[in-house]
Amino acid sequence: MDAFVATILSQCKTQLRILRLNFESLPERAAALSAATGERYEAALHRLLVDCLLHYQKIIEMCTRLHTIFGVPLLVNFGVGGWILCMTAYNIVSMKVLSFEFASTVLFTVCVLIELFLFCYYGNEVTVESDRVSGSIYSMEWSRAPVVFQRSLLVVMERAKRPLRPLAGHIIPLSLQTFLTILKSSYSFYAMLRQTMETLSLSKKHTEHNKSRGRGEAQCSTEPRLRARSARISLILRVRRSLSSESVAPHLRILRWCGFCRSWGEGDAGRAGSAGSAGSAGGTKRERVVRRLHSLYRGLTLALTVLYLLQECVYAYQVPPRADTSHVTRRTRPLRHVCRCRSQVQEDMDKLARVMFLLLCHITSIAKQLVFHVKAARIDRMVGGLDDALFNQGAEQPRRLLAATAASARRFVHAYSGCAVVTCTLWITFPVLYHLREQTVEFPFWINLDYNRSNVMFYVVLSYSYYVTTLVGIANTTMDAFMATVLNQCKTQLRILRLNFESLPERAAALVQQQPALTYDATLMKLFLECLAHYQKITETAAMLQDIFGTAILIQFGIGGWILCMAAYKIVSLSVLSIEFASMTLFISCILTELFLYCYYGNEVSDESDRVSGSIYSMEWSRASVSFQRSLLVVMVRAKRPLRPAAGLVIPLSLETFVKIIKSSYTFYAVLRQTK
Fold first, then answer.
1. Measured between alpha carbons, how far is 510 from 505 in angstroms, rounded to an integer?
2. What is the rounded distance in angstroms from the CA atom of residue 578 to the CA atom of residue 275?
């Protein structure tokens, strides 16, 4: 199977080389054909150029089909390949060089390396050959060709500037650089595994040594603490029902119930009514009262979340500093005192980790909540733009794509926020169990009350903690899903735009056939201008989303690594079969999903935007008028600079950024474990 995929890539490389030779010899072949058949030189030249374009398009389709079929398996192969090499290298270093097992393992390692190298080498060859197409076009004798032919060559060269880049699952390019990266990562995994095993070995020897001397160290395990996030109640009056805006309707409904987003009447209805009478703008008396109550509820929700954050900050500040044991040696202090000092250090670090990952999570949530308060009018305008006719085209295929986007967004926000509720509900079980066993419970936030002595006070504090954390959990996940859905909507609109560009001549011909009074060139230009307006609308929506939420997403990315670090530090000390381990695993999954959402959909927007130029080139432009071809050339030049969503104009929303955040989180975690 590996050789089969590599052979297809090699075939694409060979076809690209044949295409380059055909381009370079185009004038000579046209002259020979004209002399042999008596056909005009210009007509023969144009016919051979069309043959080359069809050949080029066929090669592109073959590469795209290969990527669609085998993209995910290749991605899995690359993701697992590093681990296979790591484990093989770990095993091979412990074998005898002259043994049969060593020889078989070496052969297996060579097979895995060849497997990865095949994809990377031939993918790199396809990219190199594709990158040379523009040079081959320039190398022909184009200076003596007609002006119309030269303009056509210019369009083809613009398309050839973006070479074919085979990918593994839209993420990993098949190139020699990727092969080197896999080898480096494999060595990094191997070094980390060796270090971990050596540390465990030394720890085991140290434990056995202490047991033999009758000195056991007291292990002080910190009790798990709960955290919860709760749902919020408010009013939602109405939601727009166009296909595009329906994708964000569930998110706005949840946020209004939570008190993080203003009600429909405060923004949408008020703005719509301002064009009419004063009475219609204000609505009925009951609606005005409902809007005022909802506005008050939003203010109370913001005050409550800020208060809880301050309580967490005070609690984190009051965690005792780490005990300094650097000066303590076995000669100056007894071993039992050293163990107590180290246990105190461990306990303090666990307390700090327990509060810090939730404190940082609440900071990112409040940053996004403030955006929904301060920039509510701009958010309403952005959501209102989804009702534009350009975003809700009536053709069957666009409607099917929009309906699928809305359905997936609705399912995801319910599953994502539900995961947050389950996590918080699991957290609430531990304080209840400890309290029923008459054990001391310590909530990870400051409150000047002795709640362990009174059942009533304990359950009041428990309810307060559960409500606030669950409220923040649902709202935070919904706000993340809202921003990701807007990015997904931009991706869908770009896909619809590409389909419209590709079918532009056919749609113009169909309209002319239905209405004979229309001319083909005028109809073609009208549809082309509609596509340009659609492109501009998509660009404005993406820019508005970045302008509104760019700073909040930047804070999310800056703190996300620390949240994962603290959560990982906490989870390694838990029993794998405990409920707390399951709840922490769900929490880490929510944080990873939160970061992955922005990176994935931002990457999808960039990918779809990068394909616009290819879709323009894929239409039947060779038979259009010269003025229309000039217009296409201008749009292709603009499309060469695709949309690149970024967090605060600094961090690009891409899968590469997600990988960097994971790496930085592991670095923070390793440093924290080392200083423990």
1. 9
2. 60
What's the pLDDT band for 476 if we cut at 50, 70, 90?
very high
Specify the amino acid at residue 54: L
What is the rounded CA–CA span in Å between residue 33 and residue 17?
22
CB burial class (10 A; 0-12, 13-18, 19+) of residue 626? Answer: exposed
Give the list of residues 6+ apart from residue 651 with CB closer than 8 angstroms, or none. Answer: 554, 557, 657
Separation CA 415–CA 421 (nearest Å): 10
Between the alpha carbon of residue 572 and those of residues 189, 357, 544, 669, the distances in Å are 19, 14, 41, 11
Choose among 19, 55, 46: nearest CA to 150. 46
Q: How far apart are alpha carbons 599 and 156 in whole angstroms? A: 32
Beta-carbon contacts of residue 67 (< 8 Å; ≥ 6 apart)? 166, 167
d(CA 183, CA 116): 10
Instruction: Identify whether the C-beta of residue 265 lies closer than 8 Å to the C-beta of residue 237.
Output: yes
Helices 249-258 + 455-502 axis angle, to 10: 160
Q: At what angle do helices 2-24 and 41-92 cross, to 10 degrees?
A: 150
Rounded-to-integer distance, Cα 132 and Cα 150, Å: 19
DSSP 8-state secondary structure symbol assigned to residue 54: H
Percent of the residues in the chain that have a pLDDT greater than 90, as a whole number:
30
CA 467, 473, 475, 476 dihedral sign is positive
Average pLDDT over residues 509-528: 91
Q: Which single residue is written with the structure tokens 């480096």?
A: 184
Question: Three-class SS string for 431-494?
Answer: HHHHHHCCCCCCCCCCCCCCCCCCHHHHHHHHHHHHHHHHHHHHHHHHHHHHHHHHHHHHHHHH
Q: Which two tokens stand for residue 297?
A: 């509820």
- Answer whether 137's CB lies under 8 Å from 20's CB: no
Tell me 652's DSSP state: E
d(CA 261, CA 281): 20
Nearest alpha carbon to residue 467 among 598, 578, 596, 304: 304
CA neighbor of 372 nearest in space, from 238, 563, 549 = 549
How far out from the chain centre does Cα 669 lie? 22
Q: How far apart are CA 249 and CA 490, in angstroms?
A: 16
Q: Using 50, 70 and 90 to split pLDDT, how confident is the model at 209?
A: low
Residue 482: count other Cβ atoms within 10 Å of its Cβ. Answer: 26
Q: How far is it, in rounded angstroms, from Cα 579 to Cα 340?
A: 28
SS3 call for 518 = coil
Is residue 549 classed as helix, strand or coil in its secondary structure? helix
Amino acid at 474: I
With CA atoms as reference, report the closest residue to 81 among 117, 106, 105, 107: 117
**What is the distance between the alpha carbons of residues 376 and 294, in angstroms, rounded to a whole number?**
14
Using a 10 angstrom Cβ sphere, with 0-12 exposed, 13-18 middle and 19 or more buried, the burial of residue 656 is exposed
Residue 355 token pair: 């509060």
Per DSSP, 97 falls in state T
Instruction: Name the residue ranges covered by the structural domains of the chain.
Output: 2-208, 217-674
DSSP state of 388: S
Distance CA 20, CA 105 (A): 43
> Model's pTM, two decimal places?
0.69
